[in-house]
Amino acid sequence: MNNIFTYIKNNKKQIAIGLSSALLLFLLIILALRGCSDGKSVSNGDNATVTSGASSGNTSESADPLELMAAGIDDVLSPTEEETKLSEYLEEVALSLESQDDEEATDGEEASDDEDDDTDEYSNLAIATVDNYVNVRTEPNTTSEIVGKMYDEAVAEILEETEGEDGLWYKVVSGDVEGYIKAEYFVRGDEVASHIDDYIIKYAVVKCDRLNIRKEPSTDSERIGYALYGEALQYLEDDGEWVKIWYTSDKEGYVSKEYVNIEESFIYAKTVEQEEEATVEEEEREERQEVTEETAPEVTETTVAVEVTPVSYSTNSELRSAIVNYALNYVGNRYVHGGQSLETGTDCSGFTCLILKQFGYSVARTPQGQYTGAGRAVTYDELQPGDIVCYSSNGSTCTHVAFYIGNGQIVHAANSRKGVIVSDINYMKSIIGYRNVLD
Description:
Blueprint: H1 2-10, H2 12-38, E1 42-43, E2 49-50, H3 65-76, H4 81-117, E3 125-128, E4 133-137, E5 146-151, E6 155-164, E7 167-174, E8 177-182, E9 186-188, H5 190-195, E10 201-206, E11 210-214, E12 223-228, E13 232-239, E14 242-248, E15 251-256, E16 260-265, E17 270-271, H6 272-288, H7 316-328, E18 340-341, E19 345-346, H8 348-357, H9 367-373, E20 376-378, E21 388-391, E22 400-406, E23 409-413, E24 420-424, E25 431-436
Antiparallel strand pairs: 1-2, 3-6, 3-9, 4-5, 5-17, 6-7, 7-8, 10-13, 10-16, 11-12, 13-14, 14-15, 18-19, 20-25, 21-22, 21-25, 22-23, 23-24
């Protein structure tokens, strides 16, 4: 029975055409039979014509041919009640089939739109190429209000393209800034996806109350300032037990690696307010250079916040289930490129990175970094819930990552249009690998 229904569903257009043809033939046969049985125009075998409706006394009287023709046409155009009901029913069936076809066509268009929308976040990513910075404006012209600054090598997501003053402009979002910049100040496309890791900036984030900044990597070295809990100092290089950082815009220094977390991020545009805050912070750090250690001693304890110790799990399967369930809590949340919060929004690699961080695991901040350095490579047959699925939009560089959650499904921060969603593992066709970080 199911096979019959399937056949009807797949061939309903042909069936509708067949039914219409059969209906026409059926009506013609009925009309022919009615014509014979009523004796409207019947040969008696002797080429004499007998006309129905004539009195017994007029059987030999010849009928007017035009009257006969009019009577025949009237009968043809006046079907019986049963014929009318049958015709109406079949018309309803045909209209129903046509309506279903229209719905399926619409569904097909929506599915096609969905498929077009299944792009990784790097498809609309752009990198600023300017000498120092370029202004971000409220309109695509150089006279509208300035809402922020886009610095060289800052990352932006292109929301739309529009013709503006002196040519093409992009409407972009970068960090907390949204506005217009001339297209000539950006590079985009495969060039960005292939070299995105080159634009990652590392920061040493202070995790104690007050941390000394030393001139050299030694506790005997001169102190040149200090940083407070949560401050992010741009990372320059690893030096064993020390990390070399930028303390101010023109002064380098060293901090003890024990008291910082190394985090990764892109450069983003700054709002006017953020620019003002950065200026104040810079001035404060310069003032700290004059403060002696006796006046403001180093405090390596953390009283501002207490880090949560990851929960231990009795089995690897239990850990994997906990990670998947934790990730699923954020389905429906926003996608924010470069975002550092699961609550307010992050991107695909930020999603996997921040989820794993909650369970005590550290992975790179970019898709390519996770593809090449997170855990170990596994095959599809070895794939387990909690592993990372890696995709590519250009066939070589990893441009999207997701958590495998079992049953052929993934959870991921898809893009700015969809946010965090659950999808089929073939959300993107070009899977280039799988990574097991957990065992």
